[in-house]
Amino acid sequence: MVDPRLRAALVRLRAVRSRRPAGADPGDFADWRDAMADALDGLAGVLLFEDDRVRARAEADAARAQAEEVRRRGEVTSPDTA
Known about the structure:
The structure is a single chain. By secondary structure, the chain is an all-alpha fold. It has three helices and no strands. The chain has one domain (4-17, 24-73). It is 71% helix and 0% strand. The protein is elongated, with a radius of gyration of 13 Å. The protein starts with a helix and ends in a 9-residue tail after the last helix.
């Protein structure tokens, strides 16, 4: 049986990922990357293995950095990043 907290974190991550903006609006993309970072942080808090927690936090940090960069430049520089 999967821990309910882990299941909820995975459902949230999938839901946020599915809301990736289709357009090229930098603000929408940056907001989505911030939401992905929050979801990844939530997942990191419930993962069983330390390596997985570290990876999820690193991905969250990278998503936040990308959101900052998109806001700073006013353009999406890597549209395939998810």
